[in-house]
Design brief:
single chain; mainly alpha; 2 domains
Length: 101
C-alpha cells in the first residue's frame, strides 16, 4: 500500500476520535450557561442549512430554477407545514421551470 494512504487514514481516524473524545474530557458537568446551551441547541440546524442551501440553488443546473424552487418551498412550508406538500410543490416548480427556462 501507499504510505500516503496509511498516513491519511491515521490522520482521519485521530481527527474523528478526537472530536468525539474532547467533549468527554472537558465537559464533565452539565452546561449551565444559557447562552452556550442555546448556541449548542441551534448548531445542528445551522449545519444542515449550510450544507443544504448551496445544493438547492445548483441542483437543477440553473440558478433561476433553483431560486424559484427555494422561494416556493419556503412559502409552501410556511403555508402547509407538511413535508410531502412542500416536496411536491418544489418538484412541480422545478419541472415547470426546467421545461420553460
Amino acid at each position: 500500500m501507499n504510505p500516503g494512504i496509511n498516513l491519511s487514514l491515521l490522520v482521519i481516524s485521530l481527527t474523528i476520535y478526537g472530536i468525539r473524545l474532547i467533549p468527554f474530557l472537558f465537559f464533565r458537568k452539565p452546561i449551565k450557561n444559557k447562552y452556550f446551551r442555546s448556541f449548542l441547541y441551534y448548531v445542528p440546524y445551522v449545519t444542515l442549512a449550510v450544507m443544504t442551501f448551496p445544493s438547492i440553488l445548483s441542483a437543477t443546473g440553473s440558478y433561476v430554477t433553483g431560486t424559484a424552487t427555494l422561494v416556493v418551498g419556503l412559502v409552501a412550508a410556511y403555508l402547509f407545514e407538511d413535508l410531502f406538500s412542500v416536496a411536491i410543490s418544489c418538484c412541480v416548480v422545478a419541472l415547470a421551470f426546467g421545461i420553460f427556462f
